């Protein structure tokens, strides 16, 4: 065997073994990739299953559609030594309220010993005014829902101009205090 044949023989042995090693490395890496892929798919399926199991049933049927008028807390600070009523009004900008059924908001007073009645008033663009009185506002936050049908003097809900919250002197025990109103919205 001459020198050229020896080199060719060694080259064949080396190239065959390096090809086999590459195949082993490739097959080992592809196996790890497949295992990782299966694990990721399993985690995603578990997450989606948990999401659907924990989600409330018939969400679309229970959901309320609301138009939020005032998301921030409103403070009505009254002092009846000077005036006879304190008013906080919101301009409704000709809001179409005919698709809505309820006015919702939360109210609280600051003095637990005080007795406070709140007048809620809606005004239409045709100057129709109707009010609903809320008795004895509580010291802690309380949510109220008033059906728009309770505002008896309004016949046309397509063009509303104003929503007002009013504290009147004759509807309070103390002559000064604070009433907070929050999360004012109309609900369908």
Which regions contain 5 or more consecutive residues with pLDDT less than 50? 55-62
Q: What fraction of residues sit in β-strands?
A: 35-45%
Kindly give the count of domains: 2
- Kindly state the number of beta strands: 9
User: What is the mean pLDDT?
Assistant: 78
CATH-level-2 architecture of the largest domain: Sandwich
Q: Helix and strand string, N-terminal first?
A: HHEEEEEEEEE
Percent helix, as a range, is: 25-40%
Rg of Cα set: 36 Å
| CATH topology term of the largest domain | Jelly Rolls
Concise summary:
The protein is α+β, with helices and mostly antiparallel strands.
Please give a handful of descriptors for the protein shown.
single chain; 2 domains; 188 residues; Jelly Rolls; alpha+beta; 4-stranded antiparallel sheet; 5-stranded antiparallel sheet; 2 helices
Describe this structure in words.
Strands 1, 2, 4, 7 and 9 form a five-stranded antiparallel β-sheet that branches. A four-stranded antiparallel β-sheet has the order 3-8-5-6, with no helix packed on it. The protein has two domains: 1-63; 64-187, Sandwich (Jelly Rolls). The longest helix is centred in the first third of the chain and has 52 residues, at 3-54. With 188 residues, it is of the alpha+beta class. The protein has helices spanning 3-54, 59-62; strands spanning 66-70, 74-79, 85-95, 102-109, 116-124, 129-134, 142-147, 160-172, 176-187. Residues 55-62 have low confidence and may be disordered. The chain has two helices and nine strands.
């Amino acid at each position: 065997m001459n020198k050229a044949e020896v080199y060719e023989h060694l080259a064949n042995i080396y190239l065959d073994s390096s090809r086999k090693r590459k195949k082993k490395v490739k097959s080992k890496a592809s196996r790890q990739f497949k295992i990782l892929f299966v694990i990721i798919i399993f985690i995603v399926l578990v997450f989606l299953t948990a999401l659907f199991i924990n989600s409330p049933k018939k969400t679309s049927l229970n959901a309320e559609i609301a138009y939020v008028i005032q998301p921030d807390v409103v403070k009505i600070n009254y002092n009846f030594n000077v005036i006879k009523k304190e008013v906080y009004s919101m301009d409704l900008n000709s809001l179409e309220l005919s698709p809505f059924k309820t006015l919702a908001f939360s109210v609280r007073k600051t003095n637990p010993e005080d007795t406070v009645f709140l007048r809620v008033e809606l005004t239409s663009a045709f100057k129709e005014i109707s009010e609903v009185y809320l008795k004895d506002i509580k010291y802690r936050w309380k949510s109220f829902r008033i059906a728009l049908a309770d505002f008896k003097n309004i016949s046309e809900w397509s063009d509303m101009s104003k929503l007002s919250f009013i504290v009147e002197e004759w509807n309070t025990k103390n002559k000064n205090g604070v009433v907070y109103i929050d999360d004012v919205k109309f609900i369908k």
